[in-house]
Specification:
The structure is a single chain. The protein is of the alpha+beta class. The protein has a single domain, classed as Alpha-Beta Complex (Nucleoside Triphosphate Pyrophosphohydrolase), CATH 3.90.79. It is about 25% helix and about 35% strand. The strands form 3 sheets. It has a 4-stranded mixed sheet with strand order 6-3-8-7, with helices on both faces. Strands 5-4-9 form a 3-stranded antiparallel sheet. Strands 1-2 form a two-stranded antiparallel ribbon. The protein is globular. The N and C termini lie far apart (about 40 Å). The relative contact order is 0.20.
Length: about 180
């Protein structure tokens, strides 16, 4: 019998077209480098700044690195949108239901600790004007940055950012016009 805890630690394996082909333990998938479904949420504040989080130091990879507002994996049977809303609440204390799916991309990156990220990553945008209250088990800090500030930091301090943020940030900037113009 599959328990709720089992589902929490499972990721959805997919083909290159995002068709599910199975489920597997999250840590095992990051050891083997199998392609799996993920999402990255980019939340912009009222001043059009991106809310970044600094990952908690004890994350299984990329601890202490800065990244987009929220990133994770949907559980089996959970939609990307449902998972993104859930993780925004759990990680950053952000209650946001007006997420807009923008695009997907596939990347593969060695994490340097024997783990591999190989994800079909769904990218979602939102605008949020409420309080940000990160869960310190997930994010040790947060800040809001302008596009130009992030561009500069990615050029000069790139090793302080997650691989997926460095890869997808240019694509995010191309699609910024699609961000919701209303606060949620």
């Amino acid at each position: 019998m599959v328990t709720v805890r089992d589902l929490k630690d499972q990721v959805v394996l997919v083909d290159r077209h995002d068709a599910p082909i199975g489920t597997r333990d999250k840590l095992e998938v990051h050891r083997t480098g199998e392609l799996h479904r993920a999402f990255s949420v980019f939340v912009f504040d009222a001043e059009d700044r991106l809310i970044l989080q600094q990952r908690a130091l004890d994350k299984y990879h990329s601890g202490g690195l800065w990244t987009n507002t929220c990133c994770s994996h949907p559980r089996p049977g959970e939609t990307v949108g449902e998972a993104a809303e859930r993780r925004l609440r759990e990680e950053m204390g952000i209650h946001c239901q007006a997420l807009e799916h923008q695009f997907t991309f596939i990347y593969r990156a060695e994490m340097g600790n024997g783990l591999v990220e190989h994800e079909l990553d769904h990218v979602l945008f939102a605008r949020y004007t409420g309080d940000v209250r990160p869960n310190d088990r997930e994010a040790m800090a947060w800040r809001a940055v302008t596009d130009s500030e992030l561009d500069q930091e990615l050029r000069t301090l790139h090793d302080r950012f997650t691989a997926w943020l460095r890869i997808c940030w240019p694509m995010v900037k191309e699609r910024r016009g699609a961000v919701l113009r209303r606060a949620v």
